[in-house]
Design the sequence.
């Protein structure tokens, strides 16, 4: 017996057919009192059959509409209707993500796209999956890492040396998991090296190599006066594998011309390298391309280079993204902005949970292949917004089958286009590529002539007193009450809280809160700071270096994103919010700026000046060299007056900066010119 009308309505909603035209027409017939009983009966039976078909195949299979004029890329055919599922080649500019277990068809899908697109592409290959395409594309350049020449310390064409110093430092620190103290030391060392090569005045050959940076840091020919050798040791240890294992790659003044390689189809083979080196090479090449495109003003939005990355979690790691001590990964920001400059990304991995939220949020097309692990399956099905019936269907996908979600369109099951390739031996690869390798120009490295009188004093670098986890050999033995322990941990985890709010959240009375505070002050673990202005003024707490070491030993994560006192951090946070309200994408401690903003290709650096010192002038000069708009927010009018006097004594063009106070800073100071 056919189900009742109410039951049919419930099932239609359950199977997502409440808006289906055919279903609604049948439902109208089933409930129309002017039709005879047999007609209504047949309509109910037809509805039941439609619902059963939907249960077995809970998709609409609406495919993107593309013409041959759009340079369509065929991904496969829909499983039920057999329609061609294509994307416009320019759609790939908005990034694509494949998720599937080993053997599910990710590499095959990559090869399928590579062989169809006319746009140049780079493939970062960890498993020698794509060298075989030379059998189909004679112009394909395959570069095993043993044949690569690249100097990451040479700025891209048109990029100011000071800006590239900062980008290089961010990328290297992210790839090798350096924290803020060592990152600041590395930054100062690279700046010193650039000065030795006179690059800030004459950005031409010769350029320093990583070997020169390693020599400078380890003191071969350079004297050092610094109190904390742990930063030097940490950075030197991260550089050493690069100079030993892959030294031949970086042992050059100019590597292969990246600008020319961007016009070619290139496979970079990184198999056999450790993961830190692979990650560094991938990220620095990505950053090089982005900064070059940015400097050239290539923002047409049309796809100009497509980058393929398998095992994407090695580069787009959620653990590194959430590691507050190292800041927001530069690679995340580049991915979000790359599409403006014609750089598309096709990424793949087995484990969606280990990928950055930024990567998942910034991929317009997502492709779900067979996934065996339930946790990984749940992560990607949530990302592409599958219904419960669609999830059940997706659990039975076989190799070469996928569910594709493109933009805001409904997901569609697709049999992916297969692409079989023959095998290319090492000897065949060398024979085919030898002439191509020999035709790639590069310039040899020239040894520097370091001055023995030069020193690097990283104790003067802001943030150098912040020790990294595991870098302090001195253990901190402290006994404090439970209330004081809770208060200290809360300060570490939530630095920007006023005292009253902090006590309330910890359920501490004013008396008990003050007693805990006094205990921490007496133990030299915190200090008090008056922060803010006007009605927003109040007391916050600063952690001492002693407290940081103690908290690290207790495995407490210190959520301290700034590089100075809590007063400095407070104003950084306030300015970041103000920049965002003015339309900027804003970041604290980005590219060596207190607060960095980017909006439609415009860049701004805002410095928080709590005092009058030469370091503030140095920061201003550095930002002006990058061509950024520079705003200085002084702590008060007295500091502003002192900075204005120092600027008058320096070589800084005061017309190129905006000098104000943190209290007077408003959106008018920050609007793009």
Sequence:
């Amino acid at each position: 017996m056919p189900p009742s009308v109410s039951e049919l309505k419930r099932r239609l909603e359950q199977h997502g057919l409440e808006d289906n035209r055919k279903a609604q027409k049948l439902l109208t017939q089933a409930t129309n009192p002017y039709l005879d009983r047999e007609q209504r009966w047949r309509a109910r039976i037809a509805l039941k059959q439609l619902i059963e078909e939907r249960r077995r195949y809970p998709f609409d299979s609406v495919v993107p509409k593309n013409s041959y004029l759009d340079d369509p890329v065929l991904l496969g055919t829909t499983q039920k209707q057999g329609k061609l599922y294509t994307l416009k080649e320019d759609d790939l500019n908005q990034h694509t993500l494949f998720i599937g277990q080993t053997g599910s068809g990710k590499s095959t899908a990559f090869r399928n796209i590579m062989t169809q697109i006319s746009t140049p592409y780079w493939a970062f290959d960890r498993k020698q999956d794509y060298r075989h395409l030379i059998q189909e594309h004679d112009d394909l350049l395959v570069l095993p890492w043993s044949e690569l020449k690249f100097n990451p310390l040479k700025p891209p064409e048109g990029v100011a040396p000071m800006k590239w110093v900062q980008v290089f430092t961010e990328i290297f620190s992210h790839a090798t998991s350096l924290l803020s103290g060592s990152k600041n030391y590395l930054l100062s060392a690279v700046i010193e090296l650039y000065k030795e090569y006179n690059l800030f005045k004459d950005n031409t050959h010769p350029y320093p190599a990583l070997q020169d940076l390693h020599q400078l840091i380890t003191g071969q020919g350079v004297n050092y006066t610094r109190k904390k050798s742990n930063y030097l040791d940490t950075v030197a240890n991260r550089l050493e594998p690069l100079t030993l294992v892959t030294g031949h790659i970086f042992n050059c003044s100019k590597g292969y011309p990246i600008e020319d390689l961007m016009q070619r189809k290139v496979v970079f083979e990184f198999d056999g390298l450790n993961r830190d080196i692979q990650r560094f090479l991938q990220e620095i090449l990505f950053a090089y391309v982005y900064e070059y495109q940015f400097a050239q003003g290539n923002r047409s939005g049309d796809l100009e280079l497509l980058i393929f990355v398998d095992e994407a979690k090695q580069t787009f790691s959620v653990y590194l993204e959430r590691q507050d001590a190292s800041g927001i990964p530069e690679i995340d920001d580049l991915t979000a902005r790359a599409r403006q400059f014609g750089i598309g990304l096709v990424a793949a991995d087995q484990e969606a949970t280990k990928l950055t939220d930024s990567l998942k949020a910034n991929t317009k097309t997502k492709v779900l292949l067979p996934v065996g692990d339930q946790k990984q399956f749940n992560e990607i099905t949530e990302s592409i917004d599958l219904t419960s019936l669609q999830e059940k269907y997706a659990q039975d996908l076989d190799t070469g089958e996928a569910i594709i979600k493109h933009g805001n369109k409904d997901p569609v099951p697709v049999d992916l286009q297969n692409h079989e390739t023959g095998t290319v031996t090492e000897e065949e690869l060398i024979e085919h590529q030898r002439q191509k390798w020999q035709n790639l120009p590069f310039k040899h490295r020239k040894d520097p002539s370091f001055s023995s009188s030069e020193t690097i004093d990283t104790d003067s670098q802001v943030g150098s007193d912040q020790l990294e986890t595991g870098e302090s050999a001195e253990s901190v033995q402290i006994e404090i009450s439970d209330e004081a322990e809770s208060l200290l941990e809360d300060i570490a985890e939530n630095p920007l809280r006023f005292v009253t709010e902090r006590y309330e959240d910890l359920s501490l009375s004013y008396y008990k809160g003050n007693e805990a505070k006094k205990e921490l002050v007496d133990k030299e673990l915190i200090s008090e700071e008056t922060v803010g202005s006007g009605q927003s003024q109040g007391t916050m707490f600063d952690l001492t270096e002693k407290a940081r070491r103690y908290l690290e030993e207790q495995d407490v994560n210190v959520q301290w994103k700034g590089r100075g006192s809590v007063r400095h951090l407070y104003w950084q946070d306030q300015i970041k919010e103000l920049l965002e309200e003015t339309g900027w994408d804003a970041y604290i401690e980005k590219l060596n700026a207190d607060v960095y903003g980017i909006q439609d290709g415009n860049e701004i650096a805002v410095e928080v000046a709590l005092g009058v010192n030469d370091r503030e002038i140095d920061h201003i000069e550095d930002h002006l060299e990058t061509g950024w708009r520079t705003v200085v927010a002084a702590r008060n009018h007295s500091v502003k007056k002192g900075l204005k006097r120092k600027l008058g004594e320096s070589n800084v063009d005061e017309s190129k900066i905006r000098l104000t106070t943190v209290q007077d800073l408003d959106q008018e100071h920050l609007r793009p010119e």
